[in-house]
Tetratricopeptide repeat protein (Lentzea tibetensis), 999 residues
Amino acid sequence: MGVGDTHNELTGDVHGVVYQARTMNFFAERAAPALSGLPRPEPDFTGRTAELARLAEQLRPGQDERAVVVSAVAGLGGVGKTTLAVKAAHDAVAAGWFPGGVLFLNLHGYSPEGRVQPADALATLLRDLGAPVPPNLAGRESLYRTELARRTEPMLILLDNASSSDQVLPLLPNSRVHRVLVTSRHSLGDLGATPIDLNVLDEADTAKLVENSLRTRLPDDRRVRDDPAAVALLGELCGHLPLALGIATSMLADDPEMPISELVDALRGETTRLKELVYGENHAVRATFDLSFHRLTEAQQRMFALLALHPGKQVGVRSAAALAGVTEREARRTLDDLRRAHVVLSGKPRGWFRFHDLVRLYAVDHARRLPDRDDAVERLLENYYDTVYSAQLWVIDDEGKSDTFSGIRDVFTWFESEMSSLRAIVDLAAKTLHDREAVMIPLLITHIWTTTGADEDLVHMHRIGLDVARRAGNSFKEMGVRLSLSRTFRSLGRIDEAAVEVDLARALTVEHDWPEFTLRCDIELGWVRMAQHRYRDAVEVLERGLAAAAEFPSIEPLVLRPLADAHTYLDELPRAREHVLRALDVYQRSSLSIDYAHLLGVLADIEGKLGDTAAALESHARALLIHERLEYANGQDVTLRRLAEIHAARKEHDVEARYLERRAALLTGASEERADALRAWGSSLVNAGRHAEAAEQLRAAVALYAELKQRRGEALSFDWLSSAEYSLGNYSVAEEAARKAVTLFRELGDGWVPESRWLAEILRDAGKTDEAEQLLQDLLRHHEAEADARAQADDLRHLAYVSNARRDHGAAAGRFEQAAALFEAVDDQQALMETLISGCNAFSNAGNHPAALEAARKGLALARTLGATDQIGLGLLRLGRALNGVGENRAALEPLTEALPLYAGNAHESTVRYHLGLAHRELREFPSAREHLLMGLALDQGESSRFDEGMTLHQLGLLHRDEGDLVEARRLGEQAFAMLTEAGHTEHAARTRAWLDGL
């Protein structure tokens, strides 16, 4: 029998169970389980409140029994993933969620000695479970899942430091009772886990971590409290990375005499910072980053190093592709791999990437070793030049656009993302002697940048370009930079500096005989003269330019636009309109659609000033269509705002609101511009009477302003919100919003006085007259102390309204009289008119009808003089009532009849008809009296208060009494008495009862 042959034979005398198998395994007796192997939690754990709450929600038993719940904490090396996971696990165990115990395993996914393989991991976990270990992977995996499945009490499995999903998948249980928590530097998207991407600490938690760490080791340490500024700097230099902060605090703890500022100074050097952030043999930031770097592929390592050559705060896919000399598709794929490995972070918007500060320093070290770094920089700068050139073509809408961008919106998205990098790019170009890029990038980007608002970075870029041009002795480029710099200064409002630059640029064009650019300088000079308010000089310069433009027809519209503006400032509107129409005619034959749309906006403004509102609306609408076709958001924003303003002036608030809604939809993200748009939309809805919709938008504006810490916008939004809620009858909500507005305005130092008066009005109408009185008395004392007569008058007027609400008509009349005297003393005719007309009712209700008549006549005369249409109607109504009060009923008919058409369909119509009915009844003209009173009653029943309806029934009852129909008089009188009593107007109810008793 040869070696390896099978021989089956039973021999001997002892027989029992016979097993036949190729391989037989023998398992030793089951070991005791070890289910409490969690590392100890960090004693100085700080922050991470939101992340702990999310993990608690996911780990809590019973949250999701449909599948095994897996949570994955991912993030940069040293960001505190393990610390967070261990803390969450201890919290969960303490809460009693995992009575079955905890399995903990470090998978060493990034260890240079090699990561833990699934077979080894399963062996460890089986031993921890007290189970035997089968010899192969399949057996171990099967037994592991069987062991977990037979355990009915929930267990937590914490798998730390995984580098890929294939390390984790064999370790997942089938049982839905258990929970799995994984940490990794990679985003394990194919794991089906709920992800938590861990970021660095914020400033507050950074300071707390440093203090807690020091106080844990040195309880009496006061260095953090004594020097918070140094702690803030330490946090910045450590990039708020917990690992780096832990190393720094260990160094401080080792030397209790070391000031934090001394350590800050040691860490300031960018080239040495990573070398300094080392503590002992096992704690070093560089070593932690090395583990991540060595897990990258060669292509990923190269891209990682190349990104450090980019001088900006973030890198786009286009720039990364240029650096690496690969296609954008290849670059995006590699960048996404780096992001999933958490060695780069996502930038804004999507498609941009950035480094953590310490990772950037680490990447710079690798970039220094690149053999082709100079070539990569050259490719990067050439790419920026080409991209900026293409962007400029799109914005001026000239021929020859490239496919670099898909449209105007794409251009501005790119620009907004690159703004913070362009200055550094120009600096890099000058430093590496790439003169073309150093000079031309500022020139080419100016039109785009000034469209969105220039800043000091653009000035700096021009200064660099100017130095390069002069160093090279290139007068033409020097002229171009100076001309562009003038536009930049003008955009910033630095007009004197703009004038200097355009004069120097023009002198160069004359010296070298460059007539086209002399013309371009004259155009800029015209704009500068207008900015200096020298409009006639601007016309002179631009007329000279217009004559020269005969040789350069394509430039003619560039002259006509500022020339039209200059004539507009001089109020020479027909001439301005003529120039704009001529420019539009030229542009109509070209493809300069953005400029064409801008000119339509200019034309609309001129037409509006000429009083042709319909034409202005049409021109703006045409401009809006062009901006929408080009997806030019800035143009749409401006035009929608102008259209809304026109409709607001026409009191067409529903239409205004529609345009402002479209404007708000254009603006996305957490920006002050969007908050402003929401507030404008909300206020237009208030004016349109759509108060519930208004409140919704104004609450959104309040929340956004609060997030942005923009207190003035928040205060203004609370003001409008209080108005919306007041109109809805939600007095308590309106009061709360107004109080918040008052608080914010007080902090800002202005606006709180009118807001306080508005709060008093809300309190008054909510029946809180004592609070309203106190608030206004406090204001009055404040203004008396400041000897502000105008403000005192306003306070007294509002106090009079409170007295009216209390039906203390004598006090109201006295306060109106005081307010009117003060307004007259300070010669505020508008306020005097309003006070006199408002005070008429108080005088009448107090029984002082001659004073009411005098106030009405004087107030109406002022209203006619000032052309205040709304006050004229009220003045006529008050005069009619006052004349009735003094018994001059025939005279009362004239102002009341004049007022009636002014209030047709208005809430005041029933009041006018009431007083007309009263006058006709007193004159015994019963048919006319009945007609007005019945029409007024119909209006009261549809819209008005029980008081108004009761008063009209009171007059109808008197009418029937005067006609001798006592039965109908009594019926109507009893109805009037009941309504007036129900409305709380006992004085008027008593008058009704008096004539009823006299029937």
Observations:
- The beta strands are 69-75, 102-106, 156-162, 179-184, 194-198, 278-279, 283-284, 315-316, 345-346, 352-354.
